[in-house]
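Operator note (shift B, R.M.): manual run for DNA modification/repair radical SAM protein requested after the automated queue skipped it. Running by hand, logging everything below so the morning shift can see what happened. Input copied straight from the record, untouched. If output looks odd, do not overwrite the archive copy; leave it for review.
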Amino acid sequence: MAQLSTRQKLEILADAAKYDASCASSGTAKRNSSDGKGIGSTEGMGICHAYAPDGRCISLLKILLTNSCIFDCHYCINRRSSDVRRARFTAQEVVELTLNFYRRNYIEGLFLSSGIIASSDYTMEQMVEVARSLREDHDFRGYIHLKTIPDADPALLNLAGLYADRLSINVELPTDSGLKRLAPEKDGGRIEGAMGHLRGEIDDKIDAKRKYKSAPLFAPAGQSTQMIVGADAADDRAIIAKASSLYDRHKLRRVYYSAFSPIPSPSAVLPLKRPPLMREHRLYQSDWMIRFYGYDAREIAAATDAATGCLPLDIDPKLAWALNHRAAFPVDVNRAPREALLRVPGLGVKAVDRILMSRRHRRLRLDDVARLTTSIKKLRPFLVAADWRPVALIDRADLRARLAPPAKQLDLFT
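Run finished. Output pasted below as returned.
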């Protein structure tokens, strides 16, 4: 077999990494080389073609160490039985690529994942060596995210956390039955056991840092995971319940959702087409509701369709919940606590904070609320203001139709 050039390997392994969605960098420790020492820097928000709060697009080198794998997960394009072109980087090649891309101002960090080669421990050793060499040999201070392997020795996971800003372990699928059917060589118990181990190490290092300034950081941007949506029969209720459980038990920074995408030469047990991309979007919205709006998994499940168990695609889950709990509305914008205002469809966290600040100085009218939000149409049935009361609007049978976005005619040639 002909030897592949570095460029050819990069084409193969960068393309193979596109299915990994979990690569944001929020919460990491800030480092820079402005003092003339080291190379690289890391920012507080956004990585890998994500957008920072000030609008900057921040990117990273996102590749696999190898797309060869000893596992045969049905949904994975890099599975053992897949007929794809294989490639493999050495640890030193990844280090050189990262530094060269950084020096050309193409990237601000590295996201590294891998198929399993030889064994879980051997693969994890190679990934840790990349991070170690960048940090110790080259004093690299940019962002590093390692996709860790749950079956690897805990000592290797500990080393990874000392060099990487964020670690992630994919749960892959929301149910044990789905994992057993589509990835029989993986074990949900071992995956969550590894997550629990990382949570313990993160907590221990945080405690140590409070007591001793010299204590080393351990994955300062925390850990994340990713679930595939639509590859198995799990509905949105199951996905939301799993995500909520992971947040509670393992203090994850993020759960990422990736809509199943048909792959070349697919397994016969996979669905023939991908789920609607809007389903992935609605799950991200529900995830936001859990993390920032005070909802729990049971409340969001109440917004799902009784027959399918999935969130509606035509309206967002916050509005769906409000329509199913009309007795909680309308709320008085001048008196309601923050928790009640956060449940009003159309009011975001920033808008609620502005309302709370503004109402200290005057009673708010509907026009005042309109100036603090992007749209007032969705708010009107759910709010009471100094000059506005919805009367019977909240009880209208056609309220959903009035608030849902209008249907759009698709264009064949767009």
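Quick read of the result: The chain has a mean pLDDT of 87. Residues 314 and 405 are 7 Å apart (CA to CA).
Leaving this for review. - R.M.
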